[in-house]
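**Reference record**
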Amino acid sequence: MAERIYILGFDYSSYLKNFNSYKYINIESPLKKINSLSSSKTEIIYVTTEKTNKDKTYSRYNYAKNELGRKLQNVYSNRLKVAQYPTIVDALRSPMMHCSFLQGSFIKLAIFLKLVKTISYCDVKKTIIFDQFSDPSFKLIKGSFLNLPRTSFIDRLMRLLLG
């Protein structure tokens, strides 16, 4: 079996940092780490949030996840595979994400109202076990008002309402 590096996660403490620090933490630093750990034969698996079809985002999270995907695509195109998921939920349909009780309550309501797509944790495990990955297809998206620090709650709200 070939050597693999799985890239997933996000630094939620970075929301309140200035935009340059934010980009370094969530885009540049992971790229440097991958470069230092990988060889020419390493397969790169990027596990990320389901992409939006919009050309513009007000969400720092969407911007960082997409921009990291684009840069991975440019550097590791022939070795990169992507696993994209909507909101992951547990057996009780509770979101499996970093959030406060209040945020979790809003997300549960959005899931109940079918405003947010979900996938079960068991289904995520199956796609990874059976190597059900796609080829990368990240496009440039324009960020608006990303230089303004915000809480994760505000960013999620902007992502839900504005994209």
